[in-house]
Specification:
Elements: H1 8-11, E1 16-18, H2 29-34, E2 39-41, H3 56-65, H4 81-92, H5 113-121, H6 149-158, H7 165-181, H8 187-202, E3 206-214, E4 221-229, E5 232-240, H9 243-254, E6 260-268, E7 277-285, E8 288-296, H10 299-320, E9 329-330
């Protein structure tokens, strides 16, 4: 892998540098760039098979903050990085780990006393870049049930979400409902609300109207579900190996399908027992691959809505697929 790097510039070769991240550190992208390569093949959040690929955000910000030793330009607007990272995490169903460089939740948090003291005296003591450089608001101010519509609009705009009036009204209703259940609503909660609202608005063939589950040490667990299908309510009771399995079985009984569940993943949006859970579901049917996502303070409700969201996207994929199409692909436009 390393052989011949020194001869790239000598040959006038400006080929690309591609790094699988099997051993970390981007597998020597900088050596190849310094040797003459003028393209780095990388991915947002470092996604990729095995240990992933070189993370775009890490490469771009390294060149931005240490341009003195890496005098290269990318012309990338770094303020878009955070929203792009969130988008990729939503589409792929793989949340970013908290300690991920640049885009991880803890990248700009300081808990240690000596760290806090150093940052208060001089922020550059432990931060070589500003949160604003990647599109983060300077402070993560919590909002609550007394926050108004104007404050919500301003906060969302700071986070990069410019919503139309009708979209804002829908998000505001859900924000108030969430604020009644949570003491504080953080940026991550708002981002989850916006993503959830966009998903529900775009795909509404199926809607979860009511869900009640019975679970505990004595099985089987039960789910009572009312599902709205094309405007008509349908109700059923189902059992399963756990409340989520029971709820999924209820959905499948009301809306029969042959889709196979490939991924079920739960991610806590914030800390605390009242935190929202973001659930990602990936399903496959006859080569059609869809990803559904939803957030709620009730994990079972979030799971059921994510499952239904995936089915909604599957319905759209069925309608868009013409006979003879190559179906074995992921439609990222449908993965809101």
């Amino acid at each position: 892998m390393w052989g011949g790097l020194g001869t790239l510039r000598e040959r006038g070769d400006t080929s690309a540098a591609r790094g699988n991240n099997n051993s970390g550190c981007g597998c020597g992208c900088w050596d190849r760039v310094e040797a003459g390569a003028r393209q780095i093949e990388c991915t947002i959040n470092g996604l990729g098979e095995r240990a992933g690929n070189t993370a775009l955000e890490e490469v771009v910000m390294a060149m931005k903050v240490r341009n003195d030793i890496m005098p290269f330009q990318t012309r990338i607007d770094t303020t878009k990085i955070m929203n792009l990272s969130r988008r990729v995490a939503s589409v792929s169903g793989f949340p970013v780990q908290f300690n991920k460089a640049i885009v991880g939740k803890n990248a700009f948090l300081h808990e240690s006393g000596i760290h806090q003291d150093g940052v208060l005296k001089n922020v550059e003591t432990f931060e070589i870049m500003r949160p604003e450089d990647i599109g983060l608001t300077q402070t993560n101010i919590a909002m609550g049930k007394h926050s108004g519509r104007a404050a919500l609009r301003s906060k969302l705009k700071e986070m990069g979400f410019d919503l139309a009036d009708n979209q804002l009204n829908d998000v505001f209703v859900r924000f108030k409902a969430l604020a009644d259940r949570k003491k504080e609503v953080y940026d991550e909660d708002l981002a989850a609300l916006v993503a959830d609202e966009a998903t529900m608005a775009e795909h509404d063939h199926l809607q979860v109207k009511r869900l009640r589950v019975i679970c505990g040490t004595d099985g089987p667990q039960e789910a009572e579900l009312t599902l709205t299908i094309d405007g008509v309510d349908h109700s059923i009771d189902a059992t399963g190996d756990g409340p989520v399995d029971a709820a999924f079985n209820a959905v499948k009984m009301l809306f029969p399908h042959q889709a196979r569940l490939q991924l079920y993943q739960v991610h806590a949006v914030t800390e605390g027992t009242d935190a929202q859970a973001t659930v990602s579901v990936r399903m496959e049917e006859d080569g059609r691959i869809v990803t559904g996502q939803s957030a709620d303070t009730d994990t079972v409700v979030a799971s059921t809505k994510a499952y239904v969201n995936a089915l909604n996207k599957l319905v759209v994929r069925r309608q868009k697929s013409a006979p003879g199409d190559d179906l074995k692909s992921v439609n990222y436009k449908d993965a809101s």
